[in-house]
Amino acid sequence: MLFLSDEKLPNLDNIFSGSRGLTHQLRARAKERERERRRSGSNALSPGLIPRVVRRNERASERAVAELENCVLSLDSPSYQLPVENDDNEDEYTSNPIPHHKRELGRRINKKVNAMWPEHASKITGMLLEFTPTQLVYLLTHDASFKDKINEAADMITSANNDSAGPSSQETPVSSGSKSESKLHINEEEESDNNPLFFQPGKPGYYSPRPGKCSPERLNCFRNVGRVIGLCLLQNEISPLSFNRHVIKYLLGRRVNWHDLAFFDPTLYESLRQLIADSSRSDHTEIFNSLELNYSIQLRPEEGGSTVDLISGGSQVEVAADNVHDYVKRYAEYRMIGNARRALQAMRRGLLDVIPAFHLDGLTAEDFRLLLNGAGEINIRQLMNYTFFSDETAGEGQEKLTKFKKWFWSMVENMTHRQKQDLLYFWTSSPAMPASAEGFQPMPSVTVKPANDHQLPTANTCISRLYVPLYSSKTILRSKFLLAIKTKVFGFV
Predict the structure, then answer these.
(1) For 283-384, where are the E strands, in sequence order?
(2) In the annotation, is 221 catalytic?
(3) Tens digit of pLDDT for each residue in 111-146?
(4) 214, 221, 232, 462: which one is catalytic?
């Protein structure tokens, strides 16, 4: 999911279209434009007689020139890395930040730049690849504009080198692995705020906000997550993202206590609980002295990775039996709420953008989770009550249909929990059962098609409907379904 990915959103101007790549299409248009110009050199046509495709190409060329004049080169752009030929590597571009559809353009640009500025070729190519494919193709077909942009980029790099090295230092060549190049662009991990929005602090599958640097863009993302949560509740949609208990309580405006830490990090909760129990022992002084605890905590990398004082001068305040309860309370509150407060506030604001606060007043954390994420277990009996069958077998007979229904439900009951989730996802686009029948919109159904042992079941998830051929045996039915839910054969039938 995008919420959990550390990948930047792609520029939609750079996507492929149709069966041929956008880069290929633009290159073909540029060649066609040059041919038309050569043809019209001696026999210029009046504007009214110029072919439409020529006029369109000329307008595109004019737009590209105007856009290039307004484009600003950036030293923050990643350097271009020439791909290494390696037959053993399935994806030679795994570590290359340049999008796939720009790599061929990158090769051509790098070759031309290398002839003019070999010491800066990698950086200049990366800076130019920030332009759209239309602009890049224009540069490649117009040498004068191309040289102007290269010289502009080289001047920026030279100025940056001089500024970072001081007024008395001399310019040194920039190579792909040198220290001087590393000063030209911002370290993406440290300076950007593009880390995943959520992490799993304890039990797998349950997420808490990852605050990052709390930039306005990141906080807006958290607010949008809250809005998505609100829309899921409003439209009876199941969300695949499950949150830790304290996150849900904060969204509901409920008080979070230290016992909620058991759902955040069970191991940490048990350690703190044992610490409280040790405070009542007769040898508590020796125990706390050996632990050497103070009012400061070391955060996990996902939480910032820094050391934080829970109170003013906390690193100098020792934890003992008489203040351990206060320490545990502060520790739990900071780990769950204090460190991610701004992210949680943004999520709650987003939720209240969609659903008024008074509609949440009667909900517990368990109610909220059930409405948002559905039931953890898939109740087959309940699913049977919701489902109806329709006959499109062209008169195969009620007896065969009754036997087929028994085969179907027997197959479902004998599936593993994961297979049941996959089936439900294949059937309804949700891996969990909704909290009530109203969660199905519409109710699930199965349409039995004419007999065909060679066809896989298909599904129309928009209306929660399965299309299943009348298979000749239960074994074939099971094998076809297991294959279908793995290959996800969706579609209208």
Answers:
(1) 296-298, 307-309
(2) no
(3) 888 888 888 888 888 888 887 777 777 777 778 788
(4) 462
